Amino acid sequence: MDIQWYPGHMAKAKREILQHLQQVDMVVELADARAPASTRNPDLQAINRKPVLIALTKDDLADPEVTQRWLAFWRAQDVSVVVLDLQHNRGVSTLLQAIQTLAPQKRRLPRALVVGIPNVGKSTLINRFAGRSSAKTGAKPGVTRGRQWIKAKNVQLLDTPGVLWPKFADQDAAQRLAVLAAIRDDIFDWEETALWLLNHLERWYPDVLPQRYETTSHGGNWLDEIGKRRGCLRSGGLVDTELAAKALLQDFRTGKLGRISLESPAT
């Protein structure tokens, strides 16, 4: 089943983002460090009319070796990029310095437009800058719906809603977005997405599943084994594979599987 999700408010938000460009000096584009390419919106290429700074969020959940490869990849192309761990307030001062360096010098505070897909951490970043809960945050996509100007230390930030693009031509990228909770959970098939993640883990992180679920005997069916280990059972003792899929994805999203990246510059 193909994954597609583009609610009406995102089309409106995209139009507003393009309109706001004339009010700002630069753009801070957030991407998830676990899938930096898949979490960048190709429809926002017009932001290149302004200086762009890429900020990789959720660094505490990503494979550090793979993140370093991404940094090298972009810096080799003269792309400005910083890494953020917003849960532990790491990298925020580095981002502030980068904004002040990259923004054109004017007789006022730099103005930066903060853009990104849903659930990538825009509102959390705004709150870290402002030192208070100025923007709503949440674990579900679509929490921020309208623009919000925030005056922070030495910078003004314009928060915007998370915006995806109308059609996911690359379904591997769509699966990454589903795994990362950038797409609403009722849009995709839990088991199909869990199987995608299982294949990725077995190829690139083969020790993770045996360590987390304390078994190497899964009979070729990790969802069954995870269901048994996590008590995802129906009447009669049968495994509820959908519940098992949800348990696996929740373990990934909360970092219980360890620091894992879903793509690298070499793939």
Strand order of the largest sheet: 3-2-1-4-6-5
N- to C-terminal separation?
Answer: 23 Å
Question: What's the name of the CATH homologous superfamily of the largest domain?
Answer: P-loop containing nucleotide triphosphate hydrolases
Number of helices: 9
List the helices and strands and how they pair.
Elements: H1 8-20, E1 26-32, E2 52-57, H2 64-75, E3 80-83, H3 92-102, E4 111-115, H4 122-130, E5 148-152, E6 155-159, H5 171-179, H6 190-204, H7 208-213, H8 222-230, H9 241-253
Parallel strand pairs: 1-2, 1-4, 2-3, 4-6
Antiparallel strand pairs: 5-6
Helix pairs in contact: 5-6, 6-9, 8-9
Briefly characterize the structure.
With 267 residues, the protein is α/β, with parallel strands linked by helices. It is built from 9 helices and 6 strands, in the order αββαβαβαββααααα.
Structure description:
It contains 9 helices and 6 strands. The chain has 2 domains: 8-159, 3-Layer(aba) Sandwich (Rossmann fold), CATH 3.40.50; 189-253, Orthogonal Bundle (Conserved Hypothetical Protein Ylqf, Chain: A, domain 2). Helix 6 (190-204) crosses helix 9 (241-253). The chain has helices at 8-20, 64-75, 92-102, 122-130, 171-179, 190-204, 208-213, 222-230, 241-253, and strands at residues 26-32, 52-57, 80-83, 111-115, 148-152, 155-159. Strand 5 and strand 6 form a beta hairpin. The chain has a 6-stranded mixed beta sheet, sandwiched between helices.
Descriptive terms for the model:
about 35% helix; about 10% strand; 9 helices; Rossmann fold; alpha/beta; about 270 residues; 2 domains; Conserved Hypothetical Protein Ylqf, Chain: A, domain 2; 6-stranded mixed beta sheet; single chain
